[in-house]
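in:
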């Protein structure tokens, strides 16, 4: 018998509330399902196991013992709940609100394919015990300077984002999104691009003309691929010029990466010049380059300083002062790591054994960063009188800068 229309709304609201009630056994003739209704509501109940669409109506039983019969037209989908989820719904609400109880339930969930439910219990454990080492380790957290960092936070520190199932830089993610959104147009552009590449490598003028006149934003994908696979710095310069002409966010970001990572000085300087010509992009570029002043790689610190000097980053004077001298940690091997060989009495080689005294040791090295000093001196000479140069005396630079900021008599020259 069909449910009377006047009672349908009341029963549907009751069914939604019962989502939070553990599901009990309803006999062998019924199986618990997650049921999506035609009006968009979702309910959980035990229904007859017949496949949806094979009957005109279906009986649904709820956890409070009530039953309802719905016409097939009111049910859009019905997915049976797995045995492990049913067990979880039956047992989990009975557990204590303690670290030990939540940990036991979370481990059971993890071992039985319910990782999402396990994460909820892990989160509750960290609310009860924020320094729980075991849970932090189960969640893949890393401890740095006494603080636990999640994989997501670690990715953010490294400038990585999650896209298409893997970790990549923001630049790579932007390019990948562009590839997916413009697949067909990119396919045609790739044919033209490939022909121009062949001409460029052959030394013909048509190839250089093509890149000189390239304005399609989609070309950044192909320019990045070609740049990364090009050993010839003269041709990498052609690609950098083309990126500068595109002037898209993706191309400007790529130019920033090139300015930091390319081995060729001329290529790096050209990339910076292309960024500098796009005045609206310079403030963001300055912030981006300044983040490398804190890198544990001394080479990156100096290249960042050089970039800020080219971009005339006078707002970063305090950061440049602090980066004049930096400490960097690296790992070395101390002791013997030699392999020894043993011989028998007959002179025959019997075997090898690795040296047992070799140990890893972290050392700290201090560097005077010449490129950072050159950038600071260049910016100060452009914006302040009289010109000063305290070399690597960080305290002297700080006192001088604080005096400039407080002084009404000496103001920075910002008009050049």
């Amino acid at each position: 018998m069909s449910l009377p229309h006047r009672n349908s709304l009341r029963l549907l609201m009751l069914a939604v509330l019962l989502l939070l009630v553990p599901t009990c056994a309803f006999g062998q003739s019924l199986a618990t399902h997650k049921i999506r209704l035609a009006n968009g509501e979702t309910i959980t109940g035990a229904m007859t196991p017949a496949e949806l669409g094979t009957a005109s109506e279906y009986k649904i039983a709820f956890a409070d013992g009530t039953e309802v019969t719905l016409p097939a037209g009111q049910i859009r989908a019905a997915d049976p709940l797995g045995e492990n989820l049913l067990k979880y719904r039956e047992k989990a609400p009975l557990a204590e609100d303690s670290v030990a109880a939540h940990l036991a339930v979370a481990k059971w969930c993890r071992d039985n394919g319910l990782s999402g439910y396990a994460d909820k219990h892990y989160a509750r454990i960290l609310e009860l015990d924020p320094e729980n080492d075991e849970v932090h380790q189960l969640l893949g957290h890393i401890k740095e300077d006494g603080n636990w960092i999640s994989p997501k936070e670690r990715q953010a520190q490294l400038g990585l984002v999650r896209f298409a199932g893997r970790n990549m830089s923001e630049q790579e993610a932007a390019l990948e999104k562009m590839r997916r959104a413009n697949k067909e147009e990119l396919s045609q552009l790739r044919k033209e691009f490939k022909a121009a590449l062949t001409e460029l490598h052959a030394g013909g003028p048509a190839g250089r003309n093509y890149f000189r006149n390239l304005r399609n934003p989609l070309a950044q994908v192909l320019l990045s691929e070609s740049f990364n696979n090009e050993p010839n710095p003269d041709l990498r310069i052609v690609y950098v010029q083309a990126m500068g002409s595109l002037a898209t966010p993706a191309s400007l970001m790529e130019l920033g990466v090139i300015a930091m990572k390319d081995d060729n000085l001329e290529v790096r300087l050209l990339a910076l010049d292309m960024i500098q010509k796009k005045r609206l992009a310079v403030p963001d570029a300055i912030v981006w380059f300044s983040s490398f002043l804190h890198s544990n790689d001394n080479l990156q610190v100096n290249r960042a300083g050089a970039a800020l000097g080219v971009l005339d980053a006078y707002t970063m004077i305090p950061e440049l002062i602090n980066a004049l001298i930096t400490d960097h940690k690296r790992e070395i091997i101390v002791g013997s790591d030699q392999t020894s060989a043993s011989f028998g009495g007959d002179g025959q080689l019997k075997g090898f054994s690795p040296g047992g005294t070799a140990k890893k040791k972290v050392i700290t090295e201090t560097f005077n960063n010449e490129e950072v000093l050159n950038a600071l001196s260049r910016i100060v000479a452009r914006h302040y009188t009289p010109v000063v140069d305290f070399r690597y005396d960080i305290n002297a630079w700080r006192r001088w800068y604080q005096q400039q900021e407080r002084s009404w008599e000496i103001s920075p020259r910002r008009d050049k």
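note: Residues 183-201 form the longest helix (19 residues).
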